[in-house]
Amino acid sequence: MTPTTKNIAVLGSTGSIGRNTLAVVRQLQGFRIWGLSGHSNLTQLADQVREFAPAAVACTARTDGTVRDLFDRTETPMAWTGRLMWGPQGLVELASAPEVDIVVAAIVGRAGLESTLAAVHAGKRVALANKEALVVGGQVVIEAARRSGAQLVPVDSEHSAIWQCLAGGRRDEVRRVILTASGGPFRNWDRQQLQQVKVDEALAHPNWRMGPKITIDSATMMNKALEMIEARWLFDLEPHQIEVVIHPQSIVHSLVEFVDGSVLAQCSPPDMKLPIQYALTYPQRMPGPVRTLDWTSAWKLDLNPPNAWQCEALELGRLVCQRGGTSGAVLNATNEVAVQAFLEGRISFAEIVPSCREILEQHQTNPTPTYQQLIEADAWARQEMNQWILA
Ligand code: NAD
Ligand code: MG
After folding, report:
1. Ligand 1: which residue has its CA nearest to atom 42?
2. What is the pLDDT of residues 148-165, one digit of tens each?
3. Higher pLDDT residue, 47 or 65?
4. Which CATH superfamily groups domain 6-154?
5. How far is the CA of 11 from the centre of ligand 1 (A)?
């Protein structure tokens, strides 16, 4: 290990982004997996511990246990002597450990907020995949980063693209940003067809292999609504400065338009390993595992405006960008509950966005919430959505 080796803690290492992070680190010089975290998939977590021998591991689904619980009992006992932490508190400890230079925040949903915030408070570089942390706690997270000097770097491909394009001008020269959306599996479906969506159809994303929650979010367009809010906080944008276009090929990851009318785009194959790698190596670029685009064969890039049903979710994103405060916590919580209910067959696909809107409209936004008030807004919205589902 060189003296400049960077220690990485991957929160959510057993998920899609977590596994892609490990694939990047396998091929990069100068980075070490110092910590891993997993939730319920102990077998996979144990495999990762065997391979990377991290100094610490957090396992959140339980609050106690032994190293033996972590490893498959049928294997020969393994001589891993790192620190094992259990429960949500273990995650916070891992995220703020002094030895850690970079925290990859790759837990899905509001469950990642506390540890992401802990990493921010500890002044880490936070490679942020967990967009829900910013949707719920945007202002609190950004202010904490300002105070601690933490560097929030995007992993979400659209935000990584914008971040890269922003290097082409000054911040006050930006007119607007244009987020691209693949449109998911139903981009050419009409409202009638959306009434009949089955779970396995919604889980079959045409371009990306991701965890189930974000895959459903992509199909409803709620993912793009969450990304509008994420962009608002990451880049300090006004709501009217954020546009969305449908781009089915997922090659142009987003664009920035400057005041002179010039537009910069970032393009690469649809592979999350690239934005993950850039978040780790920034400000440098290094060769990595991602294949390059093929410029020798013909291909085309489509960019279309979103249709009427796609705009419904985007409007919720815009509304939250305008209202701020507790409204993001409410939108996120209602959506998390609705997605889970859809996956369990308790509501239909077409009900997800309208039910979120209904509850968001009932909510009185607190414009300057504390962390505790965000958690309360989240709990209120979950309860409201659960009642909506039962009604
Ligand atoms: P995933 O479902 O594949 O993985 C989620 C990870 O979070 C797993 O490691 C799981 O163990 C952990 N986890 C789940 N519930 C937890 C809890 N209650 N406490 C602690 N840990 C918990 O999800 P993913 O697709 O890797 O997405 C992770 C985040 O990255 C999401 O916020 C998503 O929006 C964002 N993101 C993902 C992609 C992608 O390509 N997968 C792209 C952009 C952004
Ligand atoms: Mg994205």
Report:
1. 156
2. 999 999 999 999 999 999
3. 47
4. NAD(P)-binding Rossmann-like Domain (3.40.50.720)
5. 9
